[in-house]
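ok new one. same drill as before - structure tokens go in, u give me an amino acid for every spot. 178 of them this time. try not to just spam alanines like last time pls lmao
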């Protein structure tokens, strides 16, 4: 499938079959994550791969009780190493660039999972301190997103999107074409 088909096919899947993800597929998905662009090529990310049922349940609990997450074959927690970005870009690197960089990695992971036929969901609603404690994440590393990935047990319909004319301006903010 080409990249445009993959983008259009990607959905937030919240129901999975009890089938593990093969190691080779998982490695392809992780490789897609590290291929994301990053400011200055700093690559300020860490990925924590969780497959143990007990840990997945704890993460789902930390995600404000989103227990459907534990059904996934794997949960990848994407973390930003704020200090790495700050070394090169100061406060803007710490507060913004490392978040943008990890967001790009998350999107690559979501698209790779889709391309391989897996379902996934970007989960950002969670208790950050609780996730830090569950996964033993150090203070200078910030969990940004959790991505449950697995064999989908559902095929969600496409959700509506705003029309381009509602979100695109030309030359300056607020200026439409024509």
């Amino acid at each position: 499938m080409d990249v445009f088909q993959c983008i259009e096919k990607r959905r937030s899947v919240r129901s999975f079959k009890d089938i593990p993800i093969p190691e080779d597929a998982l490695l392809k998905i992780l490789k897609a994550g590290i291929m994301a662009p990053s400011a200055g090529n700093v690559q300020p990310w860490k990925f924590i791969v969780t497959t143990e049922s007990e840990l997945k349940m704890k993460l789902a609990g930390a995600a404000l009780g989103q227990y459907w997450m534990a059904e996934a074959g794997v949960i990848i927690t994407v973390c930003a190493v704020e200090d790495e970005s700050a070394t090169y870009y100061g406060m803007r690197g710490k507060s913004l660039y490392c978040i943008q960089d990890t967001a790009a990695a998350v999107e690559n992971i979501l698209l790779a999972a889709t391309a391989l036929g897996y379902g996934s969901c970007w989960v950002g609603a969670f208790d950050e301190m609780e996730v830090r404690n569950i996964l033993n994440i150090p203070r200078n590393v910030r969990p940004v997103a959790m991505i449950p990935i697995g064999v989908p047990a559902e095929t969600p319909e496409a959700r509506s999107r705003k029309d381009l004319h509602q979100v695109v301006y030309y030359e300056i903010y607020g200026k439409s074409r024509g």
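The longest strand covers residues 141-150. and btw The chain has one domain: 10-153.
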